[in-house]
Design goal:
Organism: Leptothoe spongobia TAU-MAC 1115
Order of helices and strands: EEEHEEEHHHEHEHEEH
CATH superfamily of the largest domain: P-loop containing nucleotide triphosphate hydrolases
Family: Belongs to the ABC transporter superfamily. Nitrate/nitrite/cyanate uptake transporter (NitT) (TC 3.A.1.16) family.
GO molecular function: ATP binding; ATP hydrolysis activity
Largest sheet: 6 strands, mixed
Subcellular location: Cell inner membrane
Number of helices: 7
Distance between the termini: 46 Å
Structural class: alpha/beta
Protein name: ABC transporter ATP-binding protein
Strand order of the largest sheet: 6-7-8-3-9-10
Strand content: 25-35%
Length: 258
């Protein structure tokens, strides 16, 4: 799998004129990587992910998956949103099966595959439950299972743990690392949480505020086997401070010139 984003621009019309949301974005994600793009509010992170998912059209530039241009939504890209987007009237099993049903997969086959991915995310015992009977973290695991069931080439995650409380968020981060190690799925995740980006990623793209650009790519040289103990290491803190300083840079400059 090779995701490549080249010279990507995105503008939106407003009453005051055109708003430039993304400017000259260049980045890539390779097979089996877990990569984060981190930026403050207004940096265009969600817009970038929507463009990669094919839910919106770029103003300029190109997005390719395995050298094929992205022209709309496709089964090669799975999407997990911050809000769980589960169908409340469907059981957990049927929610996971939903995308497979849209693809025309036979009933027996989609049941087997959905059951497999529910086992992967540890929710086999909740297959017959409704979303309202699940905790926030469990709902997000259902959403991840649903995306993985379609076996996409890359999983796109839009601040998937942003709506969770701190303890659940930390548990979900460990869950995602374990899932990634077991399945070796390719993941591109966006977040505003610097610590989360460093903890999860092999590489971090640091975005500027509007218009969003990539100001730096940082390779995270930490052990693949990560526990929360790694957050106390000096190398982890160095990455965290470096990225935080980059995110604050332009804001501090604006304050100095006021």
């Amino acid at each position: 799998m090779h995701l490549k984003i080249s010279k990507l621009y995105k503008q939106f019309p407003t009453k005051q004129g055109l708003l430039l949301a993304l400017k000259d974005i260049n980045m890539h994600v390779e097979t089996g990587e877990l990569v984060c793009a981190v930026g403050a509010s207004g940096s265009g992170k969600s817009t970038l992910l929507r463009l990669i998912a094919g839910l919106d059209i770029p103003t300029g530039g190109e997005i390719t998956v395995d050298y094929e241009p992205v022209k709309g939504p496709g089964a090669d890209r799975g999407m997990v949103f911050q809000k769980y987007t589960l169908y409340p009237w469907m059981t957990v099993q049927r929610n996971v099966e939903f995308g497979l049903k849209l693809q025309g997969m036979p009933k027996k086959q989609r049941r087997e595959r959905a059951s497999y991915y529910l086992d992967v995310v540890g929710l086999t015992n909740f297959a017959k439950s409704l979303p309202k009977e699940l905790s926030g973290g469990m709902k997000q695991r259902v959403a991840i299972a649903r995306a993985l069931a379609c076996q996409p080439k890359i999983l796109l995650m839009d601040e998937p743990f942003g709506a969770l409380d701190v303890q659940t968020k930390e548990a979900m981060q460990l869950f995602l690392l374990d899932l990634w190690k077991r399945t070796r799925c390719t993941i591109l995740m966006i977040t505003h949480d610097v610590e989360e980006a460093v903890f999860l990623s092999q590489r971090v793209y640091v975005m500027t505020a509007r218009p969003g650009t990539i100001q730096r790519e940082i390779i995270v040289d930490l052990p693949e086997e990560r526990t929360y103990a790694v957050k106390r290491e000096s190398k982890f803190q160095t990455y965290k401070y470096e990225i935080t300083d980059l995110l604050r840079g332009k804001q501090d400059l604006k304050l100095m010139t006021v």
